[in-house]
C-alpha cells in the first residue's frame, strides 16, 4: 500500500504514533486518531481525559467516529473475516470444483440436464445464497492472497473508525452489491467468485473516511486507480463485482461518517436499509427477466 507522507499541520496521535490526525482532544488539546476519539458534548476527548472524569455524575461512553463502541481489539472482526475466508479456501482445495459450482456466483444456467427437461441452477432459480457465499470462495492462491492482503490492510483502520457492527454491515453489503451488479451485467452462465466486491467496498469507504478526517487523499486514490486499471485490463476479472462493491462502499461509508450527530443512528440504519432494499429489488427484477 502506498506510504502516506507527513504533511505540515498534521500531528500524530499521542497514543498511536503511526496515525496522522487533524483532530484534537477538546480538554487537553492532544492529537487523537479515530481509535482514541471519545464523543463528547462538544467535539471529541481522548481516553485519558475520559478516565480522569470518571468520578463525574455521568461518565461519557467511548464512541468511535461513526458512533460505534470503542473496544480493546479494534481488528477482531477483520481477523474473523480473514479466518472465515481461509477456512473456506482450504475447503475448496479439499473438495475441488464441486464446492465452487454449488456456492459460486451464477445467474442462470443448466447443470447438464436434457434439452426436454433442463435442470436450472443459479440465483434466478431461487439460489439467492450464491450472492453472499460466492464472496467467501477462492480457488487460486494469488486471488486469495491479494484479497486477504487488501482486507488485512484496509480492515483494521475502518473497523476502528466505524465500530464492529457498522464495519460488518459495510463489508457484507459491499459483497452483496458486487454480486448484484454481476447478476445484472455479467454472463449469467459464467461462475464467478471471490471477496473482491467486499474489498473494493473497503477501498471506497477508506477514501470517504480519509476525506472526513482531512487526510491526504492521494495515496488511497492512487492505489484505487491502480486496482481499477488492473480490473479492466485483465479479462479474467469480473469488473462488475469490483464496481458494485466500490459504489456501495462509498455510499454506505458516507452515510456512516457524515450522518448528523443527533440523528446519526437513524440516518445510518436508513442508508444501510436503502442499499439493501435497492439490491433486493434489483435482483428480483433481474431474476424475473431471466426466467420470464
UniProtKB/TrEMBL annotation:
Query: Which controlled-vocabulary keywords does the entry list?
Result: Hydrolase, Membrane, Protease, Transmembrane, Transmembrane helix
Which positions make up the signal peptide? none
> What SUPFAM superfamilies does this protein map onto?
Rhomboid-like (SSF144091)
Q: Which residue windows are transmembrane per the record?
A: 74-93, 165-185, 191-210, 219-237, 243-260, 267-287
Query: Could you tell me which Gene3D superfamilies the record lists for this protein?
Result: Rhomboid-like
Keyword Transmembrane in the entry? The reply is yes
> Where does it reside?
Membrane
Q: Which domain of life is it from?
A: Bacteria
Under the cellular component aspect of Gene Ontology, which terms does the record hold?
Answer: membrane
Protein topology in the membrane: Multi-pass membrane protein
Chief localization:
membrane
The segment(s) forming the Peptidase S54 rhomboid domain are 126-256
* Record family assignment: Belongs to the peptidase S54 family.
Q: What is this protein called?
A: Membrane associated serine protease, rhomboid family
Source organism per entry reads Streptomyces zhaozhouensis
